[in-house]
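Project standup — Tuesday

K.O.: blocked on the structure for the chain from last sprint. Re-posting the sequence here as requested.
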Amino acid sequence: MEPRREETTTFNPYTALRLVSRTFALSIEKLPTLLRESITLAYLAFRVSDFLEDNQTMPPERKVELLHLWVDVLDGRVDPEALTGRLADVDPRDPEALVARHAGDVLAYIRSLPPELQGYILREARDSALGMARWQTRGPLVHDEADLDDYMFEVAGRVGHMLTHIFAWYYAPLRHLHDQMMPLAREFGLALQTVNVIRGLRKDYERGWIFVPRSFCERVGLKPPDLFKPENFESAMKVVDMLADKAERHLRKGLDYIKMIPPRFHRIRLACMWPLFFAVRTLAISRGNRAVLQNEAKMSRDEVQQIIRETWVMGWSNSWLDSYYERLSS
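H.V.: unblocked you, prediction finished:
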């Protein structure tokens, strides 16, 4: 990806992508050139919002203010420097902080894409940032499953919608499948985010957020903060099982999404397969594992590489995808 203007020469989007997410970099970098470029930039635009929302040192009021300012930047109402100038105090060693401080460069690259791609990226990134700001305003209480789905759609489901728009724009044969794929795209996003919720239970708790519906906890006689007390681990694991069952339902819809993409578009399928199957395996490791409450349950690098190798060879077959899903989830 070549710089589009003088001031972007020190910012490399692909380097930034690898710094903030090696997992998604694996998927994105295998795509055809224009898809790779546009989705890299889209991912970085969403990571600016993620940094503002997840930052552990900013008070909620500042997060909301900066998220709305980022929306104004995305809409073209203010210059990017209005945001980046407010981030001079963030830790430059944090990769996500680095991306946020280069929000102007990210936007400059996006503005060089075909107009339709610009529109898909900017619209969904804008709406996602507004959704994050809404959740920061209302606070860290998730009442029920619908509440959790609302949050997860804003931070992940919108990504699925954006990717589907981009895929259909790039490959004409996908356009007639667009309307069928969009509901599954939402489910795909919710699938990955539900697994992220399970993986990040302890970390989120330590930063003051518990993305577990209160209604789930009430079924076992607990309140959300009680999940992390050692004496409640047995009951807490039942709540983790509820989240895992929810993730499983979404993941199977994500698999349906991939199977709708014709096998001849193998690289697009792979770019979707890898995060899905990483999530499937992570979920299998997390089930019944107290580590999800104490620290984090993770798959090994060897498992990551094995999934990549096997799907590269066999991922064109939908029947193989079905059997592979079952194998990874066992």
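K.O.: great, moving the ticket to review. Residues 2-9 have pLDDT under 50 and may be disordered. The two ends are 40 Å apart (CA to CA).
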